[in-house]
Structures are given as C-alpha cells and as structure tokens.
Amino acid sequence: QVQLVESGGGLVQAGDSLRLSCAASGRTFSGSAMGWFRQAPGKEREFVAAISWSGINTLYADSVKGRFTISRDNARKTVYLQINSLKPEDTAVYYCAARGTYATSGSYYSYDYDYWGQGTQVTVSS
C-alpha cells in the first residue's frame, strides 16, 4: 500500500509561481513512475505531468509545457510540481498519483495509476 499526501496549494494571483509537493509513504517509492493530474470545477480529471522512476524521463500535457516542471527526490520519497506563470485556467484540485511496483515509465492515462492522494487546491485569481 502507498499513501500520498500533497501540499503546497493555495490562493495566488495570475503570474505567480507555486511548488506542489507529494510525499509518499509505504512501499518502495523509487521503483515507480509518478504523475500529477488536476480537476477543475465541472470538468473531468486531466493529465498534467508524469515522471519515470529514475527521474530522467518526463511527460507533460500540451497546455502546461514550458510552465510546469515535474521532478522527484527518491531519497525523500517526494515528487514536486513547479508551476510558473500561473493562469486562472490553472485553477483546480491537483492530485498526485503513483503507478504500481515496477511500472517505471510515466503515463498520460489515469487508469495506469494505482494510488492517489487527496489533492491540493490551487486557485488563481486574475
């Protein structure tokens, strides 16, 4: 079993930056790919970014490329999402997700992730 706890969300203004963190506990963290998804009010959950177990390979949604950066620290069992130049349309609950053991590559698809955090709210005012 894996527990994921997100933090770092908040109310910010357009143009600001945030760094979201996702702390993992439970089974081995370094062997699994991780991802971030988000869900805006009235919309379906959507993929944001993913990172391989090694941290070398990353994936991004087209809508966030150039502004979002995913990274991980396996020693700290933590995944980060650096968000720059925030826009009102980035307002959403951001979820961290972990793939199963030995699933070392990131994925765009939520059904590929076995474990989910409770989410952290990001609200961007214009």
Gist?
By secondary structure, the protein is mainly beta. The chain has strands at residues 2-7, 10-13, 18-26, 34-39, 46-51, 58-60, 68-73, 78-83, 92-98, 115-116, 120-125.
Which secondary-structure class do the elements indicate?
Answer: mainly beta
Q: What characterizes the major β-sheet?
A: 7 strands, mixed
Mean pLDDT metric = 94
From the alpha-carbon coordinates, what is the Rg to the nearest angstrom?
A: 13 Å
- Morphology call: globular
The low-confidence parts are none
- Counting DSSP H or I runs of 4 or more residues, the number of helices is 0
Terminal-residue CA separation: 40 Å
- Percent of residues in helices comes to under 10%
Name the beta content range. over 45%
Number of E-type strands: 11
Give the H and E element order. EEEEEEEEEEE
